[in-house]
Amino acid sequence: MAFYRGYRTLWGQSHQRVDRNGVTIWLDRTSGSGFKSVKPYRSGYFGTSIKLQSGYTAGVNTAFYVEAHPGNHDEVDIEFLGKTFDEPYTLQTNVYIRGSGDGRIIGREMKFHLWFDPTKNFHHYAIIWNPRELIFLVDDVPIRRYARKSAATFPLRPMWVYGSIWDASAWATDDGKYKADYRYQPFVATYKNFKATGCTAYAPRWCRAATASPYRSGGMTRQQYSAMRWVQRNHMVYNYCWDSSRDRSLTPECRM
């Protein structure tokens, strides 16, 4: 879909440029920018192609995500964490459940260094969300599957789709060691090729949820599982379930 058919400016309108192909947003010393879908969804496939800025972008967070807000919000993130000159971007996937991002941070992060340079060309990033699972994809390759193991650890409320760029210097790059340096402003990201399909919050109950494959079961194929294992074996750099410093009682799905 064209940007204007599916999304509206949420904040930082002066730091946003819309054209027929998509939207460019940027961060400088005065502001960042963000946009939001015109409809909430209760399941779906949500994707966009993004090209990131090269060079020094430490402290900058460029994101595409779905969120139920306000209140005890649910959130599912694809975030690009800015980098220093000699380091690659980190793609962070994250899941927050029932307000676990509101002060009492209980993130469910998996991080990756991609098998390509995301500043050279556009690549497609997507989230599949249905009542059974979340799947994160890069160029249609699944990189992470987050299964519904209980209602307490899975987002079930209707969510909107968002994109944004903002200053996350407190934590984004090496846990906040490197900050946004506005000598290199503006920090720019371009989004295009927007896709959103599935069940809106207003759809009838019989609306069929988006799935990862055409199988009757809707589950991932053997080829998709194999591709995901390859990504996680070769390109995953952090998995919250393997972090011994974390309180495992807060993430019971890691033990299921």
Automatic annotation (TrEMBL):
Alphabetical keyword list: Apoplast, Cell wall, Cell wall biogenesis/degradation, Disulfide bond, Glycosidase, Hydrolase, Secreted, Signal, Transferase
Cellular-component GO terms for this entry: apoplast
Coiled coil: none
SUPFAM superfamilies: Concanavalin A-like lectins/glucanases
GO function terms (MF aspect): hydrolase activity, hydrolyzing O-glycosyl compounds; xyloglucan:xyloglucosyl transferase activity
Pfam family, one: Glyco_hydro_16
Domain GH16: 1-191
Subcellular location: Secreted, Cell wall; Secreted, Extracellular space, Apoplast
One GO term (biological process): cell wall organization
Enzyme's top EC category: transferase
Domain of life: Eukaryota
InterPro entries: Beta-glucanase-like (IPR000757), Beta-glucanase/XTH (IPR044791), ConA-like_dom_sf (IPR013320), XET_C (IPR010713), XTH (IPR016455)
Entry comment on modification after translation: Contains at least one intrachain disulfide bond essential for its enzymatic activity.
Active site residues per record: E75 (nucleophile), E79 (proton donor)
Enzyme Commission code: 2.4.1.207
Recorded family membership: Belongs to the glycosyl hydrolase 16 family.
Function (record text): Catalyzes xyloglucan endohydrolysis (XEH) and/or endotransglycosylation (XET). Cleaves and religates xyloglucan polymers, an essential constituent of the primary cell wall, and thereby participates in cell wall construction of growing tissues.
Name of the featured protein: Xyloglucan endotransglucosylase/hydrolase
The organism of origin for this protein: Linum tenue
